[in-house]
Amino acid sequence: MLTVAHRVRPSGRLWNPAADVYRTADGWIVKVDLAGICADDLEIGLDNSSLRIRGCRRDTLFKEGFSYQQMEITYSRFEKTIQFPCVIEEASLAHDYRDGFLIVTLLCKEVVDRQGLRPNDQGN
User: Which of 8, 15, 43, 54 could tie 74 with a disulfide, CB 3.0–4.6 Å?
Assistant: First the structure.
């Protein structure tokens, strides 16, 4: 049997983690699939009507001299931007990282859409 050794190299691809967004009575909950991320390395920011999450997933198992048989997990930087139908930059933000998911909770004083209207306004 022929054995081929491959050197381990990080992927050059930009990783795009999956996210679910839930509307709640007092804001939003965003759940992002971030298995293998160190929570201290995450950057989370609000800007107008978007939430931006940045970080990097690193292969912490890699050691000099390793070779691989199969590599399917992407190790790289990522930036995930979630667009909301309303302004959220004044929302209070809380986050928790558990079981490989980042949970971001945005509590909004009131919901105002991008045109400055509240949901019950008639647009007059």
Answer: 15
Q: Where are the domains of the chain?
A: 22-107
In the chain, where do the E strands start and end?
A: 19-24, 27-33, 43-47, 50-56, 77-83, 92-98, 101-107
Q: What is the largest CA-CA distance in the chain?
A: 77
For residue range 56-90, list pLDDT tens digits in order. Answer: 998 888 888 888 888 888 888 999 999 999 998 88
Average pLDDT over residues 15-44: 94
With CA atoms as reference, report the closest residue to 34 among 100, 98, 103, 105. 100
Asked if CATH classification 2.60.40.790 holds for the domain at 22-107, the reply, yes or no, is yes
Cα–Cα distance for residue pair 99/92, rounded to 1 Å: 23
Retrieve residue 14's tokens.
Answer: 């930009």
Residue type, 37: I
